Amino acid sequence: MTGEVDHDEVVAVVRAGYDRIADGFLAAVQSRRAPDPRDEWVPKLLARLPERARILDAGCGAGVPTARDLVEGGHEVVGVDVSPRQIELARAHVPGATFMVGDLSRVELGTAAFDGIVALYSLTHVPRGEYPQLFARFTTALRPGGCFLGAVGRSDSDGFEERDFLGFVGTDGWTNSHDRDTMLAIVGAAGLTVVEHALVDEATPFGPERWLWILAVAGGPSA
Fold first, then answer.
1. What is the rounded CA–CA span in Å between residue 31 and residue 27?
2. Which helix (DSSP H) or strand (DSSP E) does residue 131 occupy?
3. SS3 assignment, position 96
4. Checking phi first, is residue 29 left (phi over 0); if not, alpha (psi -120 to 50) or beta?
5. What is the C-alpha to C-alpha distance for residues 135 and 61, in angstroms, rounded to an integer?
6. Which residues of the chain have a pLDDT value below 70?
7. Quick one: pLDDT at residue 220?
8. φ, ψ of residue 165 in degrees (nearest 5)
9. Where are the beta strands (DSSP E) in the chain?
10. Distance of CA 71 to the CA centre of its chain
11. pTM score above 0.70
12. 10 Å Cβ neighbour count for 106?
């Protein structure tokens, strides 16, 4: 599945994969001991938001640790994920948030509905041809001065199926991404001003990875 991709086929592969690995994925995340870039980047986001911000967790998975930590910080969190099993786990582990099963490319986000949007490690599973429209929707969903925080792909890949996804034997996944400059250009074209970005190496429970972290503001850095 490369080049032109079928949206529904991608969603089906991603949903089935994350449903299948949900419990093992959560256990791996909970046992993590290595430094987590969230510990540096999420506070940068929160420093720009109101004390009781309404935040969308786009691709929330089981809600741990991102949604959980945001709720514990006093924020109102809405989580969306394509995997029903991930959402089931999120509701059990983070009862203080609101979670829904949904396709990020199609779920209704509203207008000026959120102070912040986080999309950490999730957008590589959305076909990159849909990024301009997706980020435009993120911008619309943010209140003026609202912020986006993402950990996104950083290489030029038009999409490939991953066998034994994240080391889970027999599970398929699908991923794609843009290079750094293209990704930053898409974010900017959507009406978000990038205030900080960096390529970050990390030791994940599934092996070493490198992600492009982006912090951007709707309406400009002084908004």
1. 6
2. helix 131-141
3. coil
4. alpha
5. 20
6. 1-4, 220-223
7. 59
8. -50, 125
9. 54-58, 76-81, 98-101, 114-120, 142-152, 157-162, 173-177, 192-204, 207-218
10. 17
11. yes
12. 11
Q: Give pLDDT, residue 222.
A: 39
> Residue 89: enclosing H or E segment and its boundaries?
helix 84-93
The token pair at 214 is: 């982006």
Q: Which residues pair with 196 in a beta bridge?
A: 215
Pairing of strands 114-120, 54-58: parallel
Q: Where are the domains of the chain?
A: 7-218
Q: Rounded to an integer, what is the distance from CA 56 to the centroid of its chain?
A: 10
What is the predicted pLDDT for the residue at 34? 82
Topology of domain 7-218, CATH:
Rossmann fold (3.40.50)
In angstroms, how far is the first alpha carbon of the chain from the final one? 41
pLDDT the model gives residue 5: 86
Tokens linked to 175: 């991923």
Strand, helix or coil for residue 73: coil
**Contact partners, residue 50, CB within 8 Å, separation at least 6:** 115
**Euclidean distance between CA atoms 99 and 107, whole angstroms:** 12
11's tokens = 């969603």
Identify the DSSP state of 153: -
Q: Label the pairing between strands 207-218 and 192-204.
A: antiparallel
Q: Specify the amino acid at residue 8.
A: D
Whole-number Å distance between alpha carbons of 81 and 1 = 22
Q: Tell me the one-letter amino acid at 4.
A: E
Cβ pair 131, 192 in contact under 8 A: no
Q: Give the tokens for residue 113.
A: 């509905």
